[in-house]
Design goal:
binds dioxothiomolybdenum(VI) ion; 6-stranded mixed β-sheet; binds pterin cytosine dinucleotide
């Protein structure tokens, strides 16, 4: 990745406590060696004596009712310890969700008899081995009463419900559109998409006694999970330990407690034995939801010289019949361009599906498909280069909130990306570049993601040997949390990164909010920074004031560098020597970034176990967002209609990058998922019974190495201290946004054919 040095610096970390610039430079992954040596233990790999195995049984109808279940053959199967279904399972308490919405019922079994989607959990079987459990589960005799299924929102008579809180309005879009000399009016569709993290969902639930639970679970949110189970199983929060030091990907699917986990925890309590439940791959498509299918229609009005005068946007996403999930389809639409007149409306369409969930840049990703394809269509209609059209409509402030940007270097993304790609050589006309049988097309699109912030907490220990420990329940799902927190502490304490040991993913280590919304890096480097500064002050005070300190009265301050403490030109000693001389075994400091003031423990906990403290893009008087511009080349085989992405150049403005190597792989991951979205991924459902037809890796295609060209990323961000304390903006979800429309636009440029429904397959190109 290329880092473009910013021409202007926007201030500096206020107290100048960073000793050296380790943060911001490349460091290899701190967790890398453990993973390579096989020493990184994932949730399902923990070895526990007496472990039993649980499988989830799912409904095979899409709507109706479970009339009866005959458990006898299952219960008589070898190795079976417990069979749970709607008719024999105890009721558990249902609690408000993470936003505080009350549950439908206070107590219920985890297996409702009313079926609202194909794949709903109807029973669970626990046995000595996974094979025995699976075999026995197949013997359950379930009698259903089927009802008509509405599997998707494709039917003409699909009912939709408006989501009023998503409505956005300013100016008078109807009048502006009526008068606009050029109008684009187009509709776009995206299919159901699935997370497909490599590490399967699963957990081991181990009740040490009836009110003490240890949970090994692959989760993006340790404290949220612990608090959920504490409330649901009515035990104190302190009595639950959630362990998840390594997470093999989540992409949003491991943020919240899911139904299968509740079943396993319940079975383990009843059996008084540790129970493991690992979802099978096929169940990753059906036991919890991913990105719902979406539809958007856009009208953009513009002047002849390409000034946007109005945007009218309508979006709908599928949701479950009994619960609303809103894929926020106007989220990017409102932010990219200077638009004086604007309207956005959102609806949801309840269908017989599992409740959809957050999937990498929820809302933003499909939102960008709508607006960024429509802008390309507008450019075509106007005969203006799509990059030039975007430049003419650059938003100098956030038109949605009316606030200034904390920083927005999208124009720098355009300059740098276009230059690296060679965009200026692009012919305006589609179908004007070819290489033998291959039509070549160049397309571009923009992405954006808000900077989201929640409070964080960290514990920093300076040990007697001079090494440093950073402790937090925050998680690392391959993102780089371990590494950037080591870098932060190393900088503040003036020790080499190798002397910092970061321990994450355990609820006994201190609190952290969800690793979602691309917020964790910014909030945790902030929390570790604050805590390390406090630990450093304590260390310096020890050096200056301890009666046995050799540095006592040497100076009025001491500095820390390369693991040594001392005066700039005088005596220095290693931290270990100072600790030994003063007889201190450790310095142990915990700090959080909650607004100052004493508060009772329950109130503090709320910030780490719910959305209570989460702030979106707009905070105070600024609007905080990351931006990127993707430039893509595709090659389309004229005879077969196959599409290959042959070049990708992406320029990003994510503020200061804490570790360019890790951020680079975050951006690449998003871009690769964008390739999948544009060309491959699509969940297909049987309209007769709502069953998913391609619930496996052979039929649900994700991008593989063969689908991915060299990806060239340029960072043009500059430290943005109005966005976050250490100047970074959102990274993890940024680059998936805008990637699929960039490909769709390139395919149009190659072929002259506009495909408005993803994925773009050879069928819809020929
Ligand atoms: N980073 C950086 N400079 C910044 C911000 C971040 O160098 N200014 C780097 C750091 O290495 C950091 C990583 O980017 O660890 C991601 O930081 P951030 O954007 O804060 O994202 P989170 O840590 O909150 O991770 C969650 C985010 C989300 S919401 C999804 S979805 C997603 C994503 O991360 N899921 C992922 N990236 C993923 N990457 C992997 N490998 N697996 C997933 O499941
Ligand atoms: Mo990411 S979908 O916000 O976990």
């Amino acid at each position: 990745m290329t880092i473009i040095e910013p021409t202007t610096k926007r201030g500096d970390a206020s107290d100048g406590a960073m000793v050296r610039g380790t943060l911001g430079s490349i460091h290899v992954r701190a967790d890398g060696p453990a993973k390579i040596r096989g020493e990184a233990t994932y949730a399902l790999e923990h070895r526990i004596d007496g472990l039993l195995h649980c499988v989830l049984v799912q409904s095979t109808i899409g709507a109706g009712r479970v009339v009866s279940i005959d458990r006898s053959a299952t219960e008589a199967s070898p190795g079976v310890r417990l069979v749970l279904d709607a008719f024999n399972a105890a009721q558990v308490k249902w609690i408000p969700d993470y936003w505080g919405n009350a549950p439908a019922k206070d107590y219920d079994t985890p297996f409702p008899t009313e079926i609202t989607f194909n794949g709903q959990a109807i029973a669970a079987v626990v046995a000595d081995t996974p094979e025995q459990a699976r075999e026995a589960a197949a013997r359950l005799a379930v009698v259903y009463e089927e009802a008509p299924v509405r599997a998707t929102f494709d039917a003409e008579d699909t009912q939709t419900r408006p989501v009023d809180m998503m409505a956005k309005d300013w100016g008078d879009p109807d009048a502006a559109l009526a008068e606009a000399p050029v109008v684009v009016d187009a509709a776009y569709e995206t299919p159901r998409e699935y997370h497909m993290a490599l590490e399967p969902h699963g957990l081991i639930a181990h009740w040490e006694d009836d009110d003490r639970l240890t949970l090994y679970e692959s989760t993006q949110w340790i404290d949220g999970t612990a608090n959920w189970f504490a409330q649901q199983f009515e035990i104190p929060f302190e009595n639950i330990r959630v362990v998840s030091p390594y997470v093999g990907g989540g992409f949003g699917s491991k943020g919240f407690v899911l139904p299968h986990s509740i079943v396993a925890v319940m079975a383990a309590r009843q059996l008084r034995r540790p129970v493991k439940l690992a979802l099978q791959r096929s169940q990753h498509f059906t036991a919890f939801g991913a990105r719902p299918a979406t539809r958007q229609s856009l009208k953009i009005g513009a002047t002849e010289d390409g000034r946007i005068v109005a945007i009218d946007h309508q979006g709908t996403n599928e949701t479950a019949v009994d619960k609303a999930f809103v894929e926020q389809l106007g989220s990017v639409t409102a932010l990219l361009y200077a638009v004086p007149n604007f309207r956005s409306r959102q609806s949801i369409a309840p269908v017989h599906t599992v409740l959809p969930g957050a999937f990498r840049a929820p809302g933003k990703t499909p939102s960008a498909v709508g607006i960024e394809c429509a802008i390309d269509e507008l450019a075509g209609k106007l005969g203006i280069d799509p990059l030039e059209l975007r430049r003419r409509n650059e938003a100098d402030h956030d038109f949605d909130s009316g606030l200034p940007w904390s920083s927005r270097r999208l124009m720098a993304c355009y300059d740098t990306g276009a230059a690296a790609f060679g965009w200026s050589g692009r012919p305006l006309e589609p179908r004007s570049m070819r290489d033998g049988h291959q039509l070549i097309g160049w397309g571009m699109a923009v992405g954006t993601h808000p900077v989201i912030s929640s409070p964080g907490e960290a514990r920093v220990r300076i040990l007697s040997d001079g090494t440093v420990e950073v402790l937090s329940s925050a998680i690392d799902m391959g993102t780089g949390t371990y590494t950037i927190l080591a870098q932060t502490a190393a900088d503040v304490l003036g020790v080499p990164v190798e002397m910092v040991d970061v321990k994450l993913g355990d609820s006994t280590l201190g609190h952290a909010p969800v690793a979602g919304g691309s917020q964790l890096a910014n909030l945790m480097v902030g929390a570790v920074y604050k805590t390390a500064v406090a630990a450093r002050e304590e260390l310096i005070a020890l050096g200056l004031t301890d009666p046995n300190s050799p540095l006592r009265d040497q100076a009025n301050t001491l500095t820390l560098s390369e693991g040594r403490i001392g005066t700039p030109r005088g005596a220095t000693m290693s931290i270990a020597q100072l600790m030994a001389a003063t007889g201190r075994s450790e310095i142990d400091v915990t700090r959080d970034t909650l607004p100052d003031g004493e508060r009772p423990p329950e109130e503090r906990l709320k910030y780490f176990t719910s959305m209570a403290g989460m702030e979106g893009g707009v905070r105070g008087e600024v609007s905080r967002h990351s931006f990127c511009a993707h430039f893509v080349e595709v090659r389309v085989d004229e005879d077969f209609g196959t599409v290959r992405v042959s070049r990708v150049v992406t320029a990003v403005d994510a503020g200061r990058l804490y570790n360019p190597k890790l951020a680079d792989s975050q951006f690449k991951g998003g871009i690769i998922m964008g390739i999948g979205m544009a060309l491959l991924e699509e969940g297909v459902t049987d309209p007769r019974n709502g069953r998913m037809l391609n619930a496996n890796f052979a039929d649900y295609l994700v991008a593989t190495n063969a689908d991915v060209p060299e990806i060239d990323i340029h960072s043009v961000g500059e430290p943005d201290y109005d966005a976050t304390p250490l100047g970074g903006k959102a990274v993890g979800e940024l680059a998936i946004v805008g990637m699929a429309p960039a490909i769709a636009n390139a395919v149009y440029h190659a072929t002259g054919k506009r495909v408005r429904r993803l994925p773009i397959t050879m069928e819809n190109l020929l």
